[in-house]
């Protein structure tokens, strides 16, 4: 490096004073001074103290669990304790405290927020060799940050000081700068990425300056980690960083290393080691680091801040700061009920107070319309967004706040808020007359924060405008009945769909009325892929798959039957077998081959829960025995995709069915990896994600929406009754020896047996197009009906005599087994399978109150599919298509999260373009 880039601010590193000790920055630049940690015997001389310190050091284990035990995860927050002075005052104060700090380049300073807390550790086994009179020069950049006034805890006392940020340094001809990596002299060796450099200059001139490097620890992958597969690849440890004394760094060995990926799409050069991802094994995530100035470009500090940002709420100037949000008087908030499966309470903020370090809030409760007892109204439409104001004031700890709710004064909620589950309306209040509650109109609308409401409306309008302008191209694979396409018709421009079954392809052709650019490819993906590669994927060839670079999002659910826990044949595969026992399981690798060829910006892969715990032994996975979920993530990471995996239950997003599926989201380098959306509805049967099927593995489960009580949500869970109560009633005629259940009035009954002429096309029910039994009763029914006046497929497939016997006999017995029992009217649908026959593998397939199984229309409602979606084939084919599908609401929530985290921020920054939008996106994301 040329001397012009090195400042004249040269320091001497001598073996004297505290500079020879290993010191690490703690909160607000507190230091753990090693001579005061354990209160050493004052009779010991300096050399004896050093010897004792070295003996006291602990070795750092290479396992993630031991590392997590050794490193305390403390809160890292943007500094709030710095003196509140003007820039001019800061400059003057800095000059007074560090008069010899004279940067050679005078450019416009940029003010950055700082960390307030760091991890403090003493377990690196540092060698005792010293550096005597070695010269170190700071690297001078084109711009600099103003020295920052702060305090620094030393020997149990806070000392006033100035923190000076550095651009790096040169030592004995070796340059150390941001994104370099060093192997520290520890046992075993520890690798660390250099994130930032800084000096602490004390107001007290008797205290030596202290020089530090803040580093993010690196690791090599293991067989059980989700990361891996590329030689000499290192991974950043999630939430594990330290500020290390500069001498410890220069005693280590600088690595031949580079960071790749990121917004610039940096590709690997000729270095020995490289790093692209943070490995977050407890949340089944591999992602690129998120670097922000306020955290000195340390992803670990940002992660710790995210983990602890709710730990210290504070109030100032009539604002309650909690997490990263500001709350104002008269705003509406969601409150965690602390009951598993219970809906959030909704409160109107009236006041807050601080008592013994705890902040409590006072709210006026608002209850959902259905929660308020009414004697005069028992039927009719009831919206889940309709609230009633109560006259009670209740207090809760601020930690119970989950987020903000937005309450409008009338049911005319802006149309652009329909996709926002946190929007409600309230125009009435509840009044008690001693024995009952009466509902009366509010005399005036509830007060709200006009600024926050305006911000919400503007955001929702921007989101709606973005969706309309940015219908980026998408392609679906293993499409079935179009479960991935249906929720995205208004969000993406669907170009391609694929399935091997002719009936499914016929169903997909029916979607071309809504997705006009859709091309349906029938056949095995492996065959289509070979054909496309050989033909070069010409744009005018309808048989070939899409051209590389032409698709923003690629989705698909490879065949799941080979993974399903219901399929008892999915045994562990011997190590000498190349492919899995069920060949359907290997279709996922053809999908990954298509990812490699097509290079979409976003990938979504869906499969059954067992996808993450099947055992396989495939050549592509060098480690040998593994599971498909982990193996898929490794292959995506090898292609440069950040990805995360989670178990998603559709009922948590408003589908009336408990359907647990594994989803993997992957994004190309340089893009933000979207989070899985927080649950919008309660789920009494919520299940955590556990990335293992080995009971001996110590792996912590995690839930989507970690901070709330598991199973809670904004809206109550949707039940079978709420889903299908508007559909006409009917049942089967009983077989000989059984009688019908007496009903008032009696409902129509039909022969449930197979018709000899119709065969498999036998349809049992009142007809193929009949009127609904009532008007829509709730938001779900209204959304699924659309503008339809009649339901087209309210019929079942035929029943065998054995199935009829179960319906009219065994299902009426006390406590029948799951395959023989009726569904619960106030519960959700059990997971739909490809067959609706009672007595099979499915649970609760019999209607709760009518002697029959569920109709095709009811099974579609269980999936969240709209009534207008016509399934091709016989009723048996239609049952199979619903059993193989993905649920509407959970997929739509994931799509909206992709828009919110990737597309919308770019679109706003790009100036809200409306023409050639995807082309502009590609130009900025090559």
From TrEMBL:
<dbReference type="InterPro" id="IPR001525">
    <property type="entry name" value="C5_MeTfrase"/>
</dbReference>
<feature type="compositionally biased region" description="Acidic residues">
    <location>
        <begin position="11"/>
        <end position="26"/>
    </location>
</feature>
<dbReference type="InterPro" id="IPR029063">
    <property type="entry name" value="SAM-dependent_MTases_sf"/>
</dbReference>
<feature type="compositionally biased region" description="Basic and acidic residues">
    <location>
        <begin position="80"/>
        <end position="94"/>
    </location>
</feature>
<keyword id="KW-0489">Methyltransferase</keyword>
<comment type="similarity">
    <text>Belongs to the class I-like SAM-binding methyltransferase superfamily. C5-methyltransferase family.</text>
</comment>
<feature type="region of interest" description="Disordered">
    <location>
        <begin position="732"/>
        <end position="769"/>
    </location>
</feature>
<dbReference type="GO" id="GO:0005634">
    <property type="term" value="C:nucleus"/>
</dbReference>
<keyword id="KW-0949">S-adenosyl-L-methionine</keyword>
<dbReference type="InterPro" id="IPR043151">
    <property type="entry name" value="BAH_sf"/>
</dbReference>
<dbReference type="GO" id="GO:0032259">
    <property type="term" value="P:methylation"/>
</dbReference>
<dbReference type="GO" id="GO:0003682">
    <property type="term" value="F:chromatin binding"/>
</dbReference>
<dbReference type="Pfam" id="PF00145">
    <property type="entry name" value="DNA_methylase"/>
</dbReference>
<dbReference type="Pfam" id="PF01426">
    <property type="entry name" value="BAH"/>
</dbReference>
<feature type="compositionally biased region" description="Polar residues">
    <location>
        <begin position="96"/>
        <end position="110"/>
    </location>
</feature>
<dbReference type="InterPro" id="IPR050390">
    <property type="entry name" value="C5-Methyltransferase"/>
</dbReference>
<keyword id="KW-0539">Nucleus</keyword>
<dbReference type="InterPro" id="IPR001025">
    <property type="entry name" value="BAH_dom"/>
</dbReference>
<dbReference type="GO" id="GO:0044027">
    <property type="term" value="P:negative regulation of gene expression via chromosomal CpG island methylation"/>
</dbReference>
<feature type="active site">
    <location>
        <position position="560"/>
    </location>
</feature>
<feature type="compositionally biased region" description="Polar residues">
    <location>
        <begin position="758"/>
        <end position="769"/>
    </location>
</feature>
<keyword id="KW-0238">DNA-binding</keyword>
<keyword id="KW-0808">Transferase</keyword>
<dbReference type="GO" id="GO:0003886">
    <property type="term" value="F:DNA (cytosine-5-)-methyltransferase activity"/>
</dbReference>
<feature type="domain" description="BAH">
    <location>
        <begin position="325"/>
        <end position="441"/>
    </location>
</feature>
<feature type="region of interest" description="Disordered">
    <location>
        <begin position="1"/>
        <end position="125"/>
    </location>
</feature>
<dbReference type="GO" id="GO:0003677">
    <property type="term" value="F:DNA binding"/>
</dbReference>
<protein>
    <recommendedName>
        <fullName>DNA (cytosine-5-)-methyltransferase</fullName>
        <ecNumber>2.1.1.37</ecNumber>
    </recommendedName>
</protein>
């Amino acid at each position: 490096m040329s001397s012009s880039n090195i400042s004249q601010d040269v320091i001497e590193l001598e073996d004297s004073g505290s500079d020879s000790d290993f010191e690490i920055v703690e909160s607000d630049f507190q230091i753990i001074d090693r001579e005061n940690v354990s209160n050493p015997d004052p009779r010991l001389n300096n050399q004896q103290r050093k010897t004792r310190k070295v003996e006291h050091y602990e070795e750092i284990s290479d396992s993630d669990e031991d590392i997590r035990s050794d490193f305390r995860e403390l809160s890292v927050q943007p500094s709030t304790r710095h003196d509140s002075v003007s820039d001019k005052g800061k400059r003057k104060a800095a000059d007074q405290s560090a008069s010899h700090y004279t940067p050679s380049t005078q450019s416009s300073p940029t003010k950055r927020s700082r960390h307030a807390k760091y991890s403090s550790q003493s377990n690196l086994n540092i060698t005792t060799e010293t550096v005597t009179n070695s010269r170190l020069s700071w690297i001078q950049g084109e711009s600099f940050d103003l020295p920052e006034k702060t305090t620094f805890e030393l020997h149990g006392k806070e000392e006033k000081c100035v923190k000076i940020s550095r651009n790096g340094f040169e030592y004995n001809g070796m340059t150390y700068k941001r994104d370099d990596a060093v192997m520290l002299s520890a046992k075993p060796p520890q690798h660390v990425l250099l994130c930032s450099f800084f000096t602490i200059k004390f107001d007290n001139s008797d205290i030596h300056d202290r020089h530090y490097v803040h580093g993010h620890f690196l690791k090599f992958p293991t067989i059980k980690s989700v990361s891996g597969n590329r030689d000499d690849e290192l991974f950043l440890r999630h939430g594990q960083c330290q500020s290390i004394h500069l001498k410890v760094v220069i005693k280590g060995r600088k690595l031949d290393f580079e960071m790749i990926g990121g917004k610039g799409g940096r590709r690997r050069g000729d270095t020995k080691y490289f790093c692209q991802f943070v490995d977050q094994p407890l949340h089944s995530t591999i992602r690129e680091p998120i670097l922000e100035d306020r955290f000195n470009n340390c992803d670990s500090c940002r992660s710790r801040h995210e983990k602890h940002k709710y730990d210290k709420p504070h109030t100032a100037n009539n604002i309650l700061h909690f997490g990263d949000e500001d709350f104002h008087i008269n705003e509406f908030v969601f409150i965690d009920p602390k009951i598993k499966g219970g809906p959030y309470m909704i409160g109107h903020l009236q006041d807050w107070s601080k008592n013994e370090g705890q902040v409590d809030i006072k709210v006026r409760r608002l209850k959902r319309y259905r929660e308020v007892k009414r004697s005069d109204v028992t039927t009719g439409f009831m919206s889940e967004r309709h609230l009633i104001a109560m006259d009670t004031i209740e207090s809760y700890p601020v930690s119970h706040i989950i987020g903000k709710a937005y309450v409008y004064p009338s049911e005319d909620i802006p149309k652009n808020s329909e996709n926002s589950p946190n929007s409600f309306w309230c125009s009435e209040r509840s009044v008690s007359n001693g024995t009952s509650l009466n509902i009366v109109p509010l005399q005036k609308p509830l007060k709200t924060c006009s600024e926050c409401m305006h911000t919400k409306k503007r955001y929702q309008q921007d989101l709606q405008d973005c969706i309309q302008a940015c219908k980026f191209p998408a392609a679906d694979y293993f499409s079935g009945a179009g479960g991935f396409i249906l929720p995205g018709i208004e969000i993406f421009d669907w170009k391609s769909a694929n399935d091997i079954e002719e009936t499914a392809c016929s169903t997909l052709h029916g979607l071309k009325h809504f997705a006009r650019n859709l091309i349906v490819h029938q056949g095995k993906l492996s065959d289509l892929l070979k054909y496309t590669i050989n033909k070069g994927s010409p744009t005018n060839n309808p048989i070939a798959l899409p051209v590389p670079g032409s698709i923003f999002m690629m989705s698909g659910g490879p065949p799941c039957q080979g993974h399903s826990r219901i399929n008892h044949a999915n045994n562990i595969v011997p190590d000498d077998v190349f492919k899995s026992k069920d060949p359907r399981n290997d279709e996922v690798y053809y999908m990954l081959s298509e990812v490699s060829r097509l290079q979409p910006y976003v990938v979504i892969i869906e499969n059954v829960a067992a996808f993450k715990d099947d055992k396989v032994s495939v050549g592509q996975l060098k480690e040998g025995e593994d599971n498909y979920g982990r193996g898929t993530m490794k292959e995506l990471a090898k292609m440069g995709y950040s990805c995360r995996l989670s178990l998603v239950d559709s009922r948590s997003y408003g589908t009336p069915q408990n359907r647990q599926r594994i989803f993997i989201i992957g994004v190309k380098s340089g893009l933000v990896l979207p989070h899985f959306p927080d649950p919008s509805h309660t789920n009494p049967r919520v299940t955590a994600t556990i990335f293992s099927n080995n009971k001996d593995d110590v792996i912590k489960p995690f839930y989507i929406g970690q901070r709330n009580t598991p199973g809670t949500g904004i809206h109550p869970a949707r039940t079978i009754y709420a889903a299908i109560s508007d559909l006409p009633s009917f049942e089967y005629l009983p077989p000989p020896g059984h009688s019908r259940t007496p009903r008032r009035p009696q409902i129509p009954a039909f022969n449930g047996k197979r018709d000899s002429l119709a065969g498999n096309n036998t349809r049992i029910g009142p007809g193929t197009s009949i009127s609904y039994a009532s008007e829509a009763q709730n938001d779900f029914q209204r959304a699924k009906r659309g503008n339809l006046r009649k339901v087209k497929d309210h019929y079942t497939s035929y029943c065998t005599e054995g199935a009829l016997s179960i319906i009219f006999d065994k299902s009426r017995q006390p406590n029948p087994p799951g395959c023989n029992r009726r569904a619960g009217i106030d519960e959700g649908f059990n997971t739909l399978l490809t067959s609706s026959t009672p007595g099979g593998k499915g649970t609760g397939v019999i209607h709760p109150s009518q002697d029959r199984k569920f109709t095709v229309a009811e099974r579609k409602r269980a999936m969240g599919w709209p009534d207008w979606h016509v399934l091709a084939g016989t009723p048996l084919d239609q049952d199979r298509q619903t059993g193989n599908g993905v649920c509407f609401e959970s997929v739509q929530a994931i799509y909206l999260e992709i828009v919110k985290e990737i597309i919308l921020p770019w679109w706003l920054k790009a100036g809200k373009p409306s023409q050639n939008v995807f082309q502009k996106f590609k130009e900025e994301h090559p």
